[in-house]
Structures are given as structure tokens and as C-alpha cells.
């Protein structure tokens, strides 16, 4: 069985994140979607809220497993007993960042296999930052997030001071 890890902050989950997972399901038997705790970032949503949204989006008990993780990606890969680490890329800036991270991670885990999945052309501009900025300025963000979680996002945002 081939398993991969797709990790990120997913703050919030976007159409791009869903597209990456859908592509992974064409390649791998199991996809571990890991909400990483990044102490350098101030999240919009709590870890629990992001896990909830991702589980709602991908379901539970199927080929997608949603977890949260605090630590280095290589430690997560070892925990999940896989060498396949998936990264979504939208542009050359994403690629350069992910490639630099790859070489650093490869030193820590020589067997690492990083898989870059390009974003579909029609959603290249979609990012979690775009969604957050749309919310902050009272603009419609519905085209940027999966419709399966749109109502949940709206409810989660009602209690936040954005």
C-alpha cells in the first residue's frame, strides 16, 4: 500500500487543497492530511476547527486520514511510515520555497521522496491568505473554498473578531 502525507496549516482549507488531495488519491492508496502546528504563524482558525473542516470535506474512515501534528514533517513521515511527502505548488515562488525545504528535509531523511502537485490553472490565485483577506474586508470568498464546508466556515467565522 502506498501512502503519502500532505501537510500544511490549512488555515482555512481551500479549493487548491482539495485539488491536491484529489490528485493524490489518483496516485496513492491513502492520503494523510496533516494540520501542522506552526508557532511562527497566528492562525485564523484553531487546529481543532481546521481538522473539523478537513474531516467534513474528505470524510472519515476512507482513504483520507485527517490528523494534527506538532513537529517536523520528517517526524510525521516516520510516524506515518511513509517516505512520500506531497506539496502543492501554484507558481515559481511556491516551488522555490518547497524546493529549499526539500533539500533541508532530505538531509534529515535521505529516503524522502517529495512529490510536487501543480494547482489547476483555474485556481492558481487561490490561497488561504486570499480567503483570510476576503473575510477581513467583507468580500465574498465562496469561490475559493469547497462548497461542502462553506456553511461551516460561515458559522465558525461568526464568533471571531476578524
Short synopsis of the structure:
The chain is an alpha/beta fold.
Please tag this protein with its features.
162 residues, 19% strand, 5 strands, alpha/beta, 6 helices, five-stranded parallel β-sheet
How would you portray this structure in words?
Helices cover 41% and strands 19% of the residues. By secondary structure, it is an alpha/beta fold. The chain has a five-stranded parallel beta sheet, sandwiched between helices. β1, α1 and β2 form a beta-alpha-beta unit.
Q: Number of DSSP helices?
A: 6
The main pleated sheet reads as: 5 strands, parallel
User: Uncertain regions: pLDDT < 50 for 5+ in a row?
Assistant: none
The SS-based structural class is: alpha/beta
Percent of residues in β-strands: 15-25%
Q: Whole-Å distance between the termini?
A: 43 Å
Round the Cα radius of gyration to an integer and report it: 15 Å
The order of strands across the largest sheet is 3-2-1-4-5
Task: Classify the helix fraction into a percent range.
Answer: 40-55%
Query: Averaging pLDDT over every residue, what do you get?
Result: 94
Order of helices and strands: EHEHEHEHEHH
Number of strand segments: 5
The gross shape turns out to be globular
